[in-house]
Amino acid sequence: MLRDGEKIVEVGEVISTNVFKVSPEQKEILERQSEVKVEKACNEALTKIRERYNQRVNEIQKNNKSQNIE
């Protein structure tokens, strides 16, 4: 049964993956590793976004200054 907001996506190919049994301890370790990877990726993305934002702000400021001089 679908809940509100859930979608069914139909693809033309079979999706398969290996499934491994893991102990609760292994599951905890894997979840922590996954959290660390996600946090690292987010931090790297935020850094890149800030750099691009600052670069764009500087470009706009330079453009505005050059238009004011002319």
Annotation keywords:
single chain, 70 residues, mainly alpha, 1 helix, 66% helix, elongated
Instruction: Using the alpha-carbon principal axes, give the shape.
Output: elongated
> What is the residue-averaged pLDDT?
86
Q: Which oligomerization state do the chains in this entry correspond to? A: single chain
Number of strands: 0
User: What can be said about the biggest beta sheet?
Assistant: none
Note the total helix count. 1
Calculate Rg over CA atoms.
23 Å
Q: How do the SSEs run, as a string of H and E?
A: H
The proportion of residues in beta strands is under 5%
Low-confidence stretches: none
Report the helical percentage. Answer: 55-70%
> Structural class given helices, strands, pairing?
mainly alpha
How far apart, in Å, are the first and last alpha carbons? Answer: 66 Å
Quick take:
The protein has 70 residues and is an all-alpha fold.
Describe this protein's structure.
Helices cover 66% and strands 0% of the residues. It is built from one helix and no strands. The longest helix is centred in the middle third of the chain and has 46 residues.
